[in-house]
Specification:
The chain has helices spanning 2-21, 31-34, 42-52, 62-71, 77-89, 95-107, 112-124, 141-147. It is mainly α. The longest helix has 20 residues, at 2-21. The chain crosses the membrane at residues 95-113.
Length: 151
Amino acid sequence: MRALLLEKLYDWSKIPYQKFLKKNDAWNIEVSKLLRYPKDSLGQGLGLFITKHNFELQDKLESHDVFHVLTNTGITVPEEVSMQFYLLGNGKRSLYLFSVVFLGLLLYPDYFTTFKNTYNRGKKALQFHQLDFLKMLHLPIQKIKTTFLIS
């Protein structure tokens, strides 16, 4: 029930968030092009992630899926909340992030230790949340993770 509540809130908030709060440009790239990037590159990894989960790239929200790829985070609701804690630890600040963190703590108090540990992992990584990932699609995932200490 709590996962359904958060999913509905996400569905309700996604379009206004994309339209009014996200200032970056959409990438305008097809998944098929991502899959043609070199083996083990960020582009290919993103394409595989999207394909595996039957997702579509969402305009202006492409970095969100990159965060999944770089942090090896799954797509369940607790994992989504956990990823936001990682990003909070990494220095990211946004209304969306604060909303997810607050609601995640409220609805998933049993995951507090997981959220805390993930937050600490994000603090240990060098700040990467603000990078222009579109320009990094050709780079090996492991090189990005090593460079920014992403665990």
